[in-house]
Design a protein that fits this description.
The complex is a heterodimer. By secondary structure, chain A is α/β, with parallel strands linked by helices. Helix content of chain A is 42%, strand content 12%. In chain A, strands 1, 2, 3, 4, 5, 6, 7, 8, 9 and 10 form a 10-stranded mixed sheet that branches. By secondary structure, chain B is mostly helical. Chain B is built from 12 helices and no strands. The chains are: A alpha/beta, B mainly alpha.
Chain lengths: 474, 306
């Protein structure tokens, strides 16, 4: 053979090609948008009193559940009820923590499942899904009679704010949040009783309590330092309490100078004081949510900003006599605009029915079953969280944390706030406001003024960025 | 004859090249194409936006931070890993006291060390990252701070991953830890192929260990080192898994451990901006190409035949 092929050259070239190939992100395009392949829909069934959505009785139903703090047993139980109603239907169920990895290619390929619990760290961006017309309007299900009481529509059995949360800009309801979460300041009633403390209603009382605790070797607060976007769970409702609901609306609407409002400033300074005075458990900025919760259940810190899922999530480390409780955040003083008890509560576990699903009506029917009394009560008992259905708690002995959430909701009455930043602008809420600003401030590396300036700039940048879809409170 | 030769070569290359084209080249071309669109990654509907994605990148503070972190990793990681790998390999093979019957020998127990160094390589990177996450935990439970306390350094209790000045170094330390063993083994293999008479001659001339290393071992091992450098460079440019599993946020605090590959991932899979993310991917490709170019140029060196 001729010598025009040199082995070394060949190897060199191969190395070069390999170099180019290896690190670059080929995984991204492996799910490149293929053709739409419009999946065929199943035929409609017969509409009856028992089947108001005209579900095809023999059509298969595919459900994908996020396997997080709530597990997936509650959904399986509801599927059993579905099978009882439609014995000929074949229900396939899968649970995953990797919603996006599993489902994004299927959305691209036009063959999504019929009902999805789009939750967790790998949640698919709702704004994009709605914007790209990938979801079914759930209005037919909301207007169908409820499973328990044919005279009532499903929508009338839900808790306040749930339907609105599922809307984006129009009347259509794209998302049904199944769980109902109460955010606030969590603590152990036993620990407070032991030291003769009472939950502080004003910030001065809070500081006095923390000072006393510090003397006794207990830290006042801890929080998920690796995920500092847990801090707003108690900070945002406190802002509303101090300055009124408008403060949070302005923040959600990305209004200029929303973060320079005196109430916002006061709350951020108040939290900075906790850090500056050393009332925060040492090392907190390096803890993840589980680690911080464990320190808290061990009694190393008194308060933790969290949501009502914590009772289930921290179950393994919680002592029997812990008496987990939640309170609305402390206010500043008596000049606050809203009364003590103002609390953040909103829907969690967003369920969606994809537009291109084969059996979307089946997906909605399963949701209708889940929103019935029986499934709701099952959920409450299993995972100690409330559902969006207003009820399901009667005659059930609730675990202490959940009982406390229920009481806090009752005490709040009308004064429930629902900041939307965390579902409208995820990047802004989590990594910008949470990690890059609040987290830095609470770790003592940033002063409140600087923190506010930084957040305002982040918010302004998001407002200017036309690649981010915008929402407004109406 | 010439004709037959080409047919022969084509016959062997056609299938692998076709596979390469479908699974490597075409995703590349597609990625470049998508970087000029506003594709969300959640539906197959998108439109052409020209250079908008790149324009946005230039103004993106986080992109520059990620790029800076990547470049720092690219500089430090290969240097430290290969340096340590060479040092350990040298000690294991050549660095020991001279014993009867052998010109050169490793330190005592070198066979054992060789195996131990290779252990981290056996563990999956995910497991390593999770383990180190606990080691770095700053309160009582954390192994590192526990150790510091045990030796009486109660006042020195760093936040490790929680401290923006330390976080990236913590990540680097883990990556060095899990890669160094492989290079010890690789370099050991390389060193054992260097003829012993070279060492013998050098020793007779009165060379010490230091000189033997720089005058004999390193030059003869240069090809292997170069390969190692390329691989470490690739690992540094990626470093996705460690950042994703270990760091705060992940990617923080204050973007101090953000890297391009992770930023790309959040853009496409969390924010639904796959078009923007592919633009990031193209930027990463350009960095990689530049790196490859530099390595090829620097590494061009006459090969010693022996």
């Amino acid at each position: 053979m001729g010598s025009d092929f040199n082995r070394r050259d060949l190897i060199k070239r191969a190395t070069a090609a390999g170099l180019v190939a290896a690190p670059a992100a080929t995984f991204l395009t492996s799910c490149a948008s293929g053709d739409d392949g419009d999946g065929e829909k199943v035929e409609q069934g017969k509409k009856t009193d028992k089947n108001p959505l005209a579900v095809n009785e023999s059509a298969g139903l595919e459900v994908v559940i996020f396997d997080g703090g709530f597990g997936d047993k509650y959904a399986k139980d509801a599927e059993v009820l579905y099978k009882q109603a439609y014995p000929k239907a074949k229900v396939s169920h899968s649970a995953t923590t990797k919603i996006q990895t599993k489902l994004q290619p299927r959305f691209n390929g036009g063959t999504p499942p019929d009902l999805i619990d789009n939750s967790g760290a790998e949640q698919m961006d709702m704004g994009t899904l709605v914007g790209k017309d990938q979801l079914m309007d759930l209005t037919p299900m909301l207007d169908a009679p409820s499973i328990d009481d044919p005279t009532k529509k499903v929508r009338d059995t839900l808790r306040p704010g749930v339907v609105e949360m599922g809307q984006f800009t129009g009347k259509e309801v794209w998302i049904l949040y199944y769980a109902y979460t109460v955010y606030g300041v969590w603590y152990s009633q036993t620990l407070l009783d032991k030291h003769g403390w009472e939950y502080p209603k004003t910030w001065d009382e809070m500081l006095t309590l923390c000072a006393d605790a510090k003397k006794k070797g207990i830290a006042g607060w801890t929080y998920a330092g690796k995920h500092p976007y847990y801090l707003p769970f108690s900070m945002y409702p406190m802002m509303a309490k101090v300055g009124g609901r408008e403060v949070l609306d302005a923040i959600d609407n990305l209004e200029p100078n929303a973060w320079h409002h005196p109430a916002v400033k006061a709350v951020i300074e108040a939290y900075y004081e906790l850090a500056a005075k050393g009332y925060i458990l040492k090392g907190t900025p390096g803890l993840d949510h589980i680690q911080s919760q464990t320190k808290w259940t061990e009694g190393k810190a008194i308060f933790i900003p969290n949501g009502s899922w914590v009772e289930n999530e921290a179950k393994k480390t919680t002592p029997k006599d812990f008496q987990m409780a939640v309170s609305a955040p402390s206010g500043l003083d008596s000049s606050d605009k809203m009364p003590f008890g103002t609390i953040w509560a909103s829907g969690g576990e967003p369920f969606i029915v994809p537009k291109r699903a084969k059996n979307p009506m089946g997906g909605m029917e399963l949701l209708r079953i889940m929103l019935g009394e029986a499934s709701s009560r099952n959920f409450v008992q299993q995972v100690s969280s409330l559902t969006s259905m207003n009820g399901g708690t009667e005659g059930v002995t609730l675990p202490p944390g959940l009982q406390s959430s229920n009481d806090a909701l009752a005490a709040a009455g009308e004064n429930i706030v629902n900041p939307r930043l965390q579902d409208w602008y995820v990047a802004l809420q989590k990594e910008k406001i949470g990690i890059a600003a609040l987290g830095e401030m609470m770790a003592g590396r940033m002063k409140p003024d600087e923190c506010i300036k930084k957040i305002q700039k982040f918010a302004d940048d998001t407002a200017k960025d036309d690649s981010v879809k915008k929402y407004k409170h109406t | 004859m010439q004709h037959g030769k080409y047919r022969f070569i084509v016959g062997f290359l056609a299938l692998p090249l076709a596979i390469y084209a479908v699974f490597v080249i075409s995703p590349f071309v597609q990625a470049i194409y998508y970087s000029f669109t506003d594709w969300t990654g959640l539906s197959s509907d998108y439109s052409w936006v020209g250079l908008e994605n790149y324009d946005r990148l230039l103004d993106d503070e986080i992109f520059w931070k990620a790029l800076r972190n990547n470049l720092l990793l690219l500089l430090v990681l290969p240097l430290v890993t290969l340096g340590l790998g060479l040092f350990f390999a040298f000690m294991l093979n050549v660095g020991g006291k001279r014993r009867r019957g052998a010109v050169i020998a490793g330190v005592r127990g070198s066979g054992f060390y060789k195996v131990v160094y290779f252990f981290p390589q056996v563990l999956s990177i995910a497991i390593v990252a999770v383990l180190f996450r606990y080691a770095y935990e700053p309160t009582e439970g954390g192994a590192l701070n526990g150790f510091l306390r045990a030796i009486g350094l109660d006042s020195v209790q760093p936040l490790w991953l929680g401290d923006p000045d330390l976080a990236l170094w913590c990540v680097m330390a883990v990556m060095v830890w899990c890669n160094v063993g492989f290079y010890v083994v690789l370099f050991s293999a390389g060193m054992s192929s260097i003829p012993r008479d070279f060492y013998e001659a050098a020793l007779l001339d009165g060379a010490n260990r230091f000189t033997t290393f720089f005058r004999i071992t390193l030059p003869l091992l240069w090809d292997t080192v170069q390969t190692g450098w390329i691989y470490m460079g690739i690992i540094a440019l990626d470093s996705f898994a460690v950042v994703q599993i270990m760091t705060i946020g992940p990617g923080g605090p204050d973007y101090s451990t953000e890297v391009l590959s992770f930023y790309l991932y959040t853009k496409s899979f969390r924010d639904g901006q796959a078009g923007q993310a592919t633009a990031l991917g193209v930027a990463l490709l350009i960095v990689t190409l530049i790196f490859a170019g530099i390595v090829m140029r620097l590494g061009r060196r006459e090969r010693l035949e022996f």
